[in-house]
Structure formats: structure tokens, C-alpha cells
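STRUCTURE:
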């Protein structure tokens, strides 16, 4: 039978089918697939041929204790996606991120390192728009000396810590660390503070956990519990704080309590080491009066007088007994000072000096012990307007600490805040038996001065004050000038400034009341002998002191001669005021002379004055106090001018 002849179309279709069948055959031949098969055995039994392979998977070999401790964590893996993009689970070795102006608090044990990172995103983030009431203190930029920075880096050039380095694409980062509490020696008889904490800094990706034994990095040690590092950064900054355990002394397990912050705006914590900005005005056996330097000298050009006239108390004061060892090694830390002694109370008020009405702040410290030494530090909570985490400069400012002492004798007491003689703020003759508190003593002196001033006003009222300028008693002065000058003089001489008789003899101090007993009724034979030399030595300047106060022997800082001259120059000649001639016995026992070296304009430091002037100015034992160079005035004090003028 002849084969059927296919048409051209049918021929092409047949060829395509044959080719497709051949290709399908070749695919199954070379691919060799494993065909699925069924079994009556449960797939989870060991006999299952896949069971052993499943048991070999890592996630079935997890130690549950390790999982609970977080030592093993699931990390997703996606092909083609870098872990830097999808994120990673944190581990115990990764540094903690610090945010701009955000406070970090932590505990650090001896030998422990705590690591942090200030990220590139925070470094080039937006700066704060808030402004402090007090302009940020100028950072004393300088290159770090070799003894300040120890370079642990083997790769020089990786870390740029020079404060003066700069580049167009870098930003200044301020890292500050303060220790609030430190470990104490296990042996309480050993008064040795632990080693200072150490700050390690790295800008290298090769060292993301800087600390002892790693590199590249730089190290700077805290001083007095504080360090502030200003560095120019261009990316991530890694830093670690190490609890230095390089010591032979055994300490308790109590760790350092630490505050850490970083800022691109200004230091979060600041220690002002150029000055203590504080002076002792006077002290007695249980209290002390201290004066803060005028804040305008820290505020730009110091001309913003109106702003500071309205502010009340920008500063705060901390005081510790010198025997308190808890602050030793932490003197430069604001948070350490806040852990102060509960027995010491500090009150503050604004004192405006009569010289130019500058708004100074004074501190009345109570709860002290007689004949003791104390350490005090002026401070500012935050940046003077706001404080705390998230605030520029929110960690506070502390000034260099200064020391002062209290008196041993009980016959001089500090008084302040008088209503009439409002410029009187110093120690005056006292008797703790008759005047058990300073308020009663202040009222006694203030009322006496007010009474004496009333007699003066009666005389002045007879002068034609309300008249034309040409008809007044002077073309240069008027009755208001006379009233002011007389009040200053009266308060200074009616309320004498007192220091204990055991104070070292100085030619500008005068012994008083040598013929009277001490408040406890006892006499000193040497003082009785001195009292026989004359009335100046035997009695007080003001007779009411011997009659009503009965303080006993003391020494007086004389009022300044200018107070007398101002009365003579400002009041009518008809009132017949006069001053003793310089060099005379009356002058030498009544007034002191202004020391020309009182204000050192080159250093800004104040030399203790040799006489007393209205206003709370430094005493004989005062520390340094920076004042405007135009102020050439001195200490204020008094002595009853009705006896010696």
C-alpha cells in the first residue's frame, strides 16, 4: 500500500512534533530528577531518611541558657543586601550611641571600660537654636601637650585631637566626663582617692571600642573628676571611659557614678579654672559670708548692665569641711559638689555695691564649726537659665575651689540684710549670750543707726534744700548728696567691723575694749594691761557696744578716710563737720587709708584692703575676686564716729 502523501503543511507539523518529542526525551535523560515517593512511616520518626539532616540544622542545636542570656541571636540574611543596610542585632561589645546634648549616666567599676559612639549623623546634625542667658564661657583652645595626651595609636594620623586643628569639612565635638561619686578605700584609715578615670578616643573604624591595649586611639585622664575634650571630627567618633585600676590600694566594690555627654554646640559640663570668682567677706564661729564675682565679667564685653540688674541669683555655692575626703579627687565636678554635706546651709541674696550698683551675689553659709577650715566652690546650675539633659551646657559650671576659715572666739558675728544700713554685711562685735542669733544682733545695730540718723535729718531740715540752684549751699552738691554721704559714714562708724583678737597683728587693725571681760566673764591679763594705755584701746569706738553688747576684746578694721571726706564735701558748712588730720593720733585710731594696690588691673585679682567701705567687699582673709578695673574701693567697716571723727 503506497504511503500517504502529506501536504506541505502537514509535513511541517509532523517535523515540529517529532523535534519536540526528542527534546523532551533529552531533558528527562540528562536532568535525572528525584521523583517523590510515598511511605507509610511517619516523617518525624528517626527512620525518616530526612530526619537526621533536619537534626543537623544549627537552630535545633541551640543552648537555651545561652539564648536566654542573649549570647545567640537570629540574624536574617538576604542575598544581595549588605548588613549595613538591613541593620544588625546589637552585641555586648558594640558602643552605645550618644545623642547631641543628651546626658548619659552610668556606673563604672575598677578595671571596666564603657564604650560610646557619636555618629556621623549627629555630628553633622542641626545645632541647637537655644541661647543661654549667660554666654558660653570661652573655651581655652590649645594644642594638647605630650603629658596631657598619651598616643596609643600605631597608625599616626588616624585620630585628630588637636583643639586648634580645623578643616572645611570638620566639626568641633565637645566630649565631657564628670565623676559624681568614686570608690573609697576599704581601709577607712587610708584617705587616698582612687586613680582618675581615663577617657579614650578614636576616629578609626579599626578601633570602635577604644580603651587600654587597643589602637589607634588617644587617652586623656580626668583631673579632679572632670575632663572636657574639644576635637575636630569628620565622621563617627568612638570613645570609652575606663575605671583605672592601676593602684596598690584596695577599694570597695562601689563603682564610679559618672555623667557623660557630647555636644556640637558647647561643652555640656564645664570647669572654669582661671579663677575661683569668689571671696570671703567675713566669718564667725558658725557662719561665713562669701561674695561672688560680678557675672557681667563673664558675659561678653561686660556691658550688659540692664540684663543683670533684673536677675536674682545666677550662681550657687557649695561648701565642704576640709576633713571631708569624699570631694578629694572630685573638686572639678559639678555633680560631685551637689552631693554636699546636709549640715551646711547656704542662702543667697543680691548685694548691690554702693560704688556703682553692680549686682553682686552674696552667700550666707551657716552650720559651720568654730576654728575650722572649709573648701568652697562657686557654681552655676546648667547654663544659668536651663539645666539637664537636652540643654546646651545643661550639666553645669563649677569654678576653681577656694578655702576659708571660721573664727575661734565667739565675740564677733556676721550680720547681713539690714533694712536701714543695707550696705553692712560683715562681722561685728557680738555677745552670744545676749544675742543668740544674728537677726537680733543686726536689729540692735540697725535700730541704733536709724535713731542717730534721725538727729541728723532734724538738723538738715533747717537747710533750704528745696530752692533754686544758685541759692543752694553748694553749686556742686545738694542735700541728697549730703544725706547719702552721711548715711554711709554713720553706718560704717556706728557698726564697727570686727575680727577676733587672736588674729595676727596688722598695722591697720586696732585693738578695742581691752578693759572689758569676754562674754563668759573672763579677763585676759595682757589685755587689761593694754587697756591702761588709753581710751582708744580700753573702749570700743561706739559706747553702746560696751554698755549693751559687752563683746569684750576684739580688733577693728577701720573705716576708710574717704567716708569722712565725703561728708565734709557734701554737707553744708553750717553743720561744722570736720575730719582729723592724717598722721594725727585721732586719725590713726579712727580711719584707715585706701591701699593704692587694692585692684590689680593686669591680673584682675583683688588685694585685701586696709580699711572698710560700704558694700560686701573682700576681707583680710579673702581669696581672689575679679572686679572692674575702675572700682578702686575697699572693704567696708565701721566705728562709731560720734566718738572719733
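SEQUENCE:
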Amino acid at each position: 500500500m503506497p504511503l500517504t502523501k502529506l501536504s506541505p503543511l502537514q509535513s511541517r507539523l509532523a517535523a515540529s512534533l517529532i523535534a519536540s518529542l526528542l527534546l523532551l526525551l533529552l531533558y528527562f535523560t540528562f536532568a535525572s530528577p528525584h521523583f517523590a515517593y510515598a511511605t507509610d512511616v511517619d516523617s518525624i520518626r528517626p527512620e525518616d531518611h530526612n530526619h537526621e539532616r533536619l537534626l543537623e540544622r544549627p537552630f535545633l542545636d541551640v543552648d537555651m541558657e545561652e539564648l536566654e542570656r542573649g549570647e545567640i541571636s537570629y540574624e536574617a540574611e538576604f542575598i544581595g543586601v549588605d548588613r549595613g543596610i538591613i541593620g544588625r542585632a546589637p552585641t555586648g561589645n558594640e558602643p552605645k550611641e550618644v545623642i547631641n546634648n543628651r546626658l548619659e549616666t552610668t556606673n563604672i567599676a575598677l578595671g571596666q571600660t564603657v564604650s560610646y559612639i557619636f555618629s556621623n549623623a549627629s555630628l553633622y546634625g542641626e545645632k541647637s537654636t537655644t541661647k543661654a542667658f549667660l554666654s558660653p564661657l570661652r573655651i581655652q583652645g590649645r594644642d594638647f601637650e605630650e603629658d596631657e595626651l598619651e598616643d596609643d595609636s600605631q597608625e599616626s594620623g588616624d585620630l585628630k585631637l588637636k583643639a586648634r586643628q580645623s578643616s572645611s569639612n570638620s566639626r568641633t565635638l565637645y566630649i565631657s566626663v564628670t565623676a559624681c561619686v568614686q570608690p573609697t578605700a576599704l581601709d577607712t584609715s587610708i584617705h587616698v582617692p582612687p586613680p582618675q578615670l581615663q577617657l579614650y578616643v578614636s576616629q578609626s573604624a579599626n578601633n570602635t571600642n577604644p580603651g587600654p591595649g587597643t589602637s589607634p586611639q588617644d587617652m586623656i585622664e580626668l583631673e579632679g573628676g572632670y575632663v572636657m575634650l574639644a576635637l575636630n571630627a569628620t565622621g563617627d567618633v568612638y570613645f570609652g571611659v575606663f575605671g583605672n585600676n592601676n593602684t596598690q590600694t584596695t577599694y570597695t566594690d562601689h563603682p564610679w557614678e559618672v555623667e557623660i555627654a557630647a555636644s556640637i554646640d558647647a561643652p555640656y559640663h564645664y570647669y572654669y579654672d582661671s579663677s575661683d570668682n569668689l571671696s570671703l567677706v567675713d566669718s564667725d564661729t558658725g557662719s561665713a559670708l562669701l561674695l561672688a564675682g560680678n557675672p557681667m565679667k563673664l558675659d561678653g564685653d561686660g556691658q550688659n548692665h540692664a540684663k543683670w540688674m533684673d536677675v536674682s541669683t545666677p550662681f550657687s555655692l557649695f561648701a565642704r569641711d576640709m576633713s571631708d575626703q569624699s570631694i578629694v579627687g572630685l573638686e572639678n565636678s559639678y555633680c560631685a559638689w551637689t552631693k554636699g554635706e546636709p549640715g551646711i546651709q547656704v542662702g543667697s541674696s543680691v548685694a548691690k555695691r554702693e560704688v556703682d550698683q553692680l549686682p553682686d551675689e552674696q552667700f550666707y553659709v551657716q552650720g559651720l564649726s568654730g576654728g575650722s577650715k572649709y573648701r568652697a566652690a562657686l557654681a552655676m546650675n546648667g547654663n544659668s537659665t536651663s539645666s539637664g539633659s537636652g540643654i546646651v551646657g545643661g550639666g553645669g559650671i563649677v569654678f576653681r575651689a577656694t578655702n576659708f576659715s571660721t573664727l575661734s572666739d565667739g565675740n564677733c558675728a556676721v550680720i547681713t540684710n539690714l533694712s536701714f544700713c543695707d550696705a553692712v554685711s560683715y562681722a561685728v562685735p557680738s555677745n552670744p549670750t545676749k544675742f543668740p542669733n544674728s537677726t537680733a544682733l543686726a536689729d540692735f545695730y540697725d535700730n541704733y543707726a536709724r535713731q542717730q540718723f534721725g538727729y541728723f535729718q532734724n538738723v538738715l531740715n533747717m537747710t533750704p534744700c528745696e530752692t533754686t540752684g544758685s541759692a543752694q549751699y553748694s553749686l556742686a552738691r545738694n542735700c541728697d548728696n549730703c544725706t547719702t554721704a552721711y548715711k554711709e559714714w554713720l553706718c560704717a562708724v556706728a557698726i564697727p567691723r570686727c575680727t577676733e583678737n587672736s588674729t595676727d597683728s596688722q598695722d591697720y587693725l586696732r585693738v578695742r575694749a581691752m578693759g572689758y571681760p569676754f562674754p563668759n566673764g573672763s579677763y585676759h591679763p595682757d589685755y587689761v594691761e593694754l587697756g591702761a594705755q588709753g581710751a582708744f584701746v580700753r573702749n570700743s569706738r561706739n559706747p553702746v557696744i560696751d554698755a549693751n553688747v559687752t563683746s569684750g576684746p576684739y580688733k577693728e578694721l577701720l573705716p576708710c578716710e574717704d567716708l569722712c571726706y565725703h561728708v565734709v564735701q557734701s554737707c553744708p558748712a553750717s553743720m561744722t563737720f570736720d575730719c582729723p588730720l592724717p598722721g594725727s593720733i585721732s586719725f590713726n585710731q579712727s580711719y584707715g587709708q585706701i591701699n593704692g594696690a587694692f585692684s590689680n588691673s593686669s591680673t584682675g585679682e583683688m588685694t585685701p584692703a586696709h580699711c572698710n567701705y560700704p558694700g560686701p567687699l573682700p576681707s583680710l582673709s579673702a581669696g581672689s575676686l575679679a572686679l572692674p578695673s575702675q572700682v578702686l574701693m575697699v572693704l567696708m567697716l565701721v566705728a562709731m564716729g560720734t566718738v572719733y571723727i
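REMARK: Residues 96-267 form a domain with the Jelly Rolls fold (CATH 2.60.120.380).
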